[in-house]
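Page 42, continued from yesterday. The earlier attempt failed because a stray header line got pasted into the input along with the sequence. Redoing it now with the clean sequence only.
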Amino acid sequence: MLTFATVGTSQITEVFADAVSRVPEVRIGTAYSRHAVRAAAFAEKIGAPASASDWAGLLANAAVDAIYVASPNRVHASQAAQALAAGKHVLVEKPAVTEVADWDELVALSKRHGVVLLEAIRNRFDPGLAKVRELLPEVGTLRRLTLRYEKRSSRYDQVLAGETPNIFNPELGGGALRDLGIYCISALIALVGEPESVVAASVPLRTGADGLGTLLASYPGFLADLHYSKITSPDQPSVIQGEDGTLVIDAIDAPRTLTLTRSGAASSTITIAGPANPMESEVHRFAALVAGGDTADADQAATRAALGLIATAS
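This time it went through. Structure tokens are written below.
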């Protein structure tokens, strides 16, 4: 049984805890927070049998096999590095870190200590994205990918009220690009690899974080335009255009309904039976890597490529 300790008490950790509960070979043993009362309350909330507020003690705990890092983006690198150096496997929430160099150091640390390092970017492991990749040849010669993830954050009202919540705090690595745009970037790399060149533009907010943005990536023979927002909700799908057809994707973070229209033919709808919790796939992948039989090299390379695009677009 692979036993996790969680770091972070936000909603994403609650969703992760639910995903873990659906994977038989994994469990959460400890919930960590710097504040003991908050740690205990969160452990009870997610059903963890123990809580901790002593970071050094947590890393020294032999009953903890892996750390799930879901703290503010800016502190991912230091916490993940300390966990890896302590011999713990690390699943770090997206974006894994804020600098490519930090990721390179973490990868080197994981190899040095013989432990698994994986970014928790759920759509990279999602069966829906795998189906999109399978269907790409159906549209013929690829000419344009339009990938979107635009959803008005409930915390945007706090920004409008003059506050600076973590997710809109650039000092903590917040903003639309790193929170939602990364799903578009992850899908782009998974589907067609890294582009030849990138240009980007964004709308800054009072906090200094980007509220929304667009990234235009150039490839030999086709373009990709990525749109991400935390201040609007246009509810538009992602679309892949080829010379022989078009593929419409309902949600790039977890594709479940695909509509394929080939030139001169009627449209067909493909429904993907994904997991009940979209984070289950990343938990399965992490558990499989810890069990052995495969390496995280390709996953880590994809993370590095995504971080490079984020750096270019920032």
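Notes: The chain has a mean pLDDT of 96.
Reminder to self: strip header lines before submitting.
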